[in-house]
Amino acid sequence: MVEKRVQPLARDAMAYVLAGGRGSRLKELTDRRAKPAVYFGGKTRIIDFALSNALNSGIRRIGVATQYKAHSLIRHMQRGWNFFRPERNESFDILPASQRVSETQWYEGTADAVYQNIDIIQDYGVEYMVILAGDHIYKMDYEHMLQQHVDSGADVTIGCLEVPRMEATGFGVVHVDDKDRIIDFVEKPADPPAIPGKPDSSFASMGIYVFHTKFLIDALRRDAADPNSSKDFGKDIIPYIVKNGKAVAHRFANSCVRSDFEHEPYWRDVGTIDAYWQANIDLTAIVPELDIYDKSWPIWTYAEISPPAKFVHDDEDRRGSATSSVVAGDCIISGATLNKSLLFTGVRANSYSKLEGAVVLPSVKIGRHAQLKDVVIDHGVVIPEGLIVGEDPVLDAKRFRRSEGGICLITQPMIDKLGL
C-alpha cells in the first residue's frame, strides 16, 4: 500500500503546456494568432483553461512552449499570468522555440518542445511533470491524476476521455485491460478498441500525460537520439512506453471538475469553426454544459479594466436588448437586438442591427441595419451598414468563409474586398 503524503503532489509538480500549434482548421481565426490564443467564452482565451486547471490544482511551476505566431499569446500571458513569485517557489516560464539546442532547429514535435528545455526543467528539481495541450476547453483537477500515477507505479499516466466508439476514429485511442493498463495506443483507428465492459465506448487520449521527471528526461533523450523519430509524444514516446514499460489510463470522469449545474464531464476540442461557434453559443443556454460562473474553480485570464455593458434606446423598432445572450464589459448595444449571441469586450452594436447566433470577438463595430445570423466575427472587424449574412448561403460562401455547418467566419480583409 502506498502511503498518501500530507502535502499535495501538485506542489512537487511542473505543468508544461504545449501551446505552439497553429490550429489550421480554424482557418482565418489563426492567421494572426496561435490556436491557444484564440478568444473563448466572452473574456478568456483557450489557453486559460489549461493554465487555470494547473493553478487551481495547486501546481505553482508552469512552463508554456510557444512557436507559431506567438506574439498575441505571449502578450496575453505577460499581462494576465505575471503574478507568480519565485520567493514562494513559484514560476511561470514562456518558452518560445529559440534554437537553444541547435542554431537551425525549431521545435520539431511535441516531445522536442520539452526536450529542448530539459535544463530549465532540471533547474526546478520537481519530481513530477504534467504535460498538457494548451488548446482544449475543460475543467480538471490534476492532483487526482498525479495521485493515481504514484499509486499505480506507472511510467506514464495518460488522461483519457470516454467517447462513443465510432466517434473515436479521429483521436489517438488507448486500448486498456480491465485494470486500465494500456496495452496498445492507436492513432485514428478505423475500428477503435472498446473499453472493457463497454463495447460501444472507447478511450480517446486527451494529450495529458503525467511522468516522474527523471523517467521523462531519460525517455526524451532516448527519443532525441533516434534519427527515425518524429519527436512526438503521441507518435513516438507513448507507443514506446506502452510496448516497453507501464502506461496507465486515467479516466477524465474521475478528475473532471463539475459544479452543481454540470452533470456530464465537459471537454471540447474547439478546433473547427463549427465546434468553436457551438461551444461559445452553448454558453448562452439557461443551464450550459460548462459552468464558467463556478467560483470554486475560476478560469483566470487577463481582465482589462473596462466599464460595464450598456443597453440604450427604447423605441418600438429601435430597442437595445438581449435575450439568451452573454455580453462582456464595455459593450454598447445602441438600439440593436441580440438573441442567442456572445459578445466579447468592447463591441458596439448600432441601431436597427440584429444579431442571432453571433459570436463577436473584441472591439467589433456593427453598423446600423446589419442583420447577422450564425456568424463568428473576428477581432476589430467593422461591419458595414445594412450587411446581411445568414439568409443566402450561396452569396455568403462567395463573400466569407462558410463552414460545413453553415457558420460564416467574417474577417476585416473579407469585408474590405466587398468595397462597401
What can you see in these coordinates?
- The protein has 420 residues and is α/β, with parallel strands linked by helices.
- The protein has 2 domains: 9-284, Spore Coat Polysaccharide Biosynthesis Protein SpsA, Chain A (Alpha-Beta Complex), CATH 3.90.550.10; 310-417, 3 Solenoid (UDP N-Acetylglucosamine Acyltransferase, domain 1), CATH 2.160.10.10.
- Helices cover 22% and strands 28% of the residues.
- The chain has 10 helices and 29 strands.
- The strands form 6 sheets. Strands 1, 4, 5, 6, 8, 9, 10, 11 and 12 form a 9-stranded mixed sheet that branches.
- The protein is globular.
- The N and C termini lie far apart (72 Å).
- It is an enzyme of class 2 (transferase).
- It catalyses: alpha-D-glucose 1-phosphate + ATP + H(+) = ADP-alpha-D-glucose + diphosphate.
- Alpha-D-glucose 1-phosphate binds at residues 107, 172, 187-188, 205.
- Residues 307-410 form the Glucose-1-phosphate adenylyltransferase/Bifunctional protein GlmU-like C-terminal hexapeptide domain.
- Residues 16-284 form the Nucleotidyl transferase domain.
Largest sheet composition: 9 strands, mixed
The CATH superfamily of the largest domain bears the name: Spore Coat Polysaccharide Biosynthesis Protein SpsA, Chain A
Count of DSSP-assigned helices: 10
Are there runs of 5+ residues with pLDDT below 50, and where? none
Rough shape? globular
Number of strands: 29
CA distance, first residue to last residue = 72 Å
Identify the CATH class of the largest domain.
Alpha Beta
How helix-rich are the residues, as a percent range? 10-25%
Strand content: 25-35%
Look up the CATH topology of the largest domain: Spore Coat Polysaccharide Biosynthesis Protein SpsA, Chain A
What average pLDDT do the residues reach? 94
**Secondary structure category:** alpha/beta
The CATH architecture classification of the largest domain is Alpha-Beta Complex
What is the total domain count?
Answer: 2
C-alpha Rg (nearest Å): 23 Å
